[in-house]
Specification:
The chain has 110 residues and is α+β, with helices and mostly antiparallel strands. It has 4 helices and 5 strands; from the N terminus they run H-E-H-H-E-E-E-E-H. A 5-stranded mixed beta sheet has the order 1-5-4-3-2. Strand 4 and strand 5 form a beta hairpin. It is globular. It starts with a helix and ends with a helix.
Amino acid sequence: MELEKLFPGVGFDWNKWNADKIWENHKVQFSEAEEVFFDINLIILPDPTHSIAEERYIALGKTKTSRSLFVVFTERGFDATKKIRIISARDLSKKERRKYREQIKKGAGA
């Protein structure tokens, strides 16, 4: 799955405070979290529980080094200026890794 197909013309937008917090708490860097969006097996789910002030999504995917990450994000801007704002990023839990693998198997069998 290509990022261009999901989010045409999209780039990334980072909040420095969030980026520092993500690094301190989970040891995930900006560039590493961005790599998830280029994972061929990327899974994007709505996050209605945390979509009060803005619509949020969850991305489950792998980096170039095969690190499995859980990324919370929202979209900022409109059309040609749209950007992905990463809110949080951390390693997938055991349960999330299982769900990710199951989704890949479903996709491969479809």
